[in-house]
Amino acid sequence: MRVDNKNYRTVWMKDTSVFLIEQNLLPFIFKIYEAKDYLDTCHAIKNMIVRGAGAIGATAGLGMAQAFLEAREDDFWEYIDKAKKDIEATRPTAQNLFYAVNRVYHAGKSSTDPRAAAIKEAQKIADEDVESCRKIGEYGNELIKDGFNIETHCNAGWLAFVDWGSALSPIYVAFREGKKVFVYADETRPRSQGARLTAWELKNEGVPYVILPDNVGAYLMSSGKIDLMIVGADRIARNGDVANKIGTFEKAIVAKEFNVPFYVAAPTSTFDLDCNSGKEIPIEERSEDEVLYQTGLTTKGKMEKILVCSPGSKVINPAFDVTPAKYITGIITEKGIIKPAENSIKKLFS
Ligand code: MRU
Predict the structure, then answer these.
(1) Among 337, 331, 339, 343, residue whose Cα is nearest residue 270
(2) Strand partners of residue 11
(3) Residue 322, SS3?
(4) Domains along the chain?
(5) Is 266's C-beta closer than 6 angstroms to any atom of ligand 1?
(6) Could you give the C-alpha distances from 254 to 223, 234, 248, 274, in angstroms and in order?
């Protein structure tokens, strides 16, 4: 994707460093973060310098590759095993993280040249992510008619992957094809990925949009303003239940009530066949501070963090919720659009 006429991926590796677009500073400051070793890469994932399932996965894979490069001969596998544990402990919900770490680990383990094999596998995961998202765009584009108004939640655009994105990819393909599309981007409290990141991406791509405060969705859907809703996914269970950014479940219930088609877009790397249903998906609890404070740009052009709640209040801050399969019209994958049901999901992997 292009930023100021330059092509970028959200994450890439050069020599022994992993480079990331610093997402905590967007949309105000565009800066590249350099993670010099795997612990730095863990820090970047945990602190959401990089976020979004696919981008977390690609970064975790590259972090694992960094560990292979850093490990010394005398305690090689102890170092690698510890790195695997450290990376897996950064964020618990996005399946892509575990998918990528395991692929890189096993590629290294089964090779006579573990370092080279790990790097090759990590790069392959990042390239596959780009290609899967491009195909999701093509399949999803078939759902979009000229003149459609589309709602999306959180940021499942290219910042949430290596390129293209999942939920936004069909919109980018439709827009580039010349279809008239309009996007309603849910603000997505508490971290406001919709208001900050989705809005920034859409502006860069020239796609017309507005930001929706989180509680406006039902009002708009009830008045027939939304033709289609597309969201991303952080983990999909084998029965088609979907974990995604907190607030998705509410939108899905409202969409069903008002007959708005509700699609999830995700690559097959987000499916977890070991999870029988959404009840088994671990939900990350994040710090109270994300709700109590907001960081933004002052009128003097400085980034500042301010308290926006009654001081001393207690907060609950689950980062994700699970939408049961019965609320989901279909899942857009790189292999086609499927029903959120166990038999369709099994076929994807056969
Ligand atoms: O907490 P985040 O920002 O890493 O959450 C991920 C998301 O952006 C959303 O849940 C998204 O819809 C799915 S990730 C492709």
Answers:
(1) 331
(2) 20
(3) strand
(4) 2-133 (1.20.120.420), 138-348 (3.40.50.10470)
(5) no
(6) 12, 21, 10, 29
Reported confidence tier of residue 1, pLDDT bands at 50, 70, 90? confident
Best of 244, 287, 334 for a ligand 1 pocket test (most atoms within 8 Å of beta carbon): 244
Q: Looking at 129, 186, 214, 234, which residue is catalytic?
A: 234
Q: How far apart are CA 140 and CA 123, in angstroms?
A: 26
Question: From ligand 1's centre to the CA of 71, what distance in Å?
Answer: 31
Q: Which tokens hold the place of 316?
A: 């609950």
- Cα–Cα distance measured from residue 87 to residue 204, given in angstroms and rounded to the nearest whole number: 32
- In short, whether 254's Cβ falls inside 6 Å of ligand 1 is no
Per-residue pLDDT reduced to its tens digit, 223-275: 999 999 999 999 999 999 999 999 999 999 999 999 999 999 999 999 999 99
Measuring CA to CA, which residue among 38, 122, 125, 112 is closest to residue 80? 38
Active site residue 234: yes
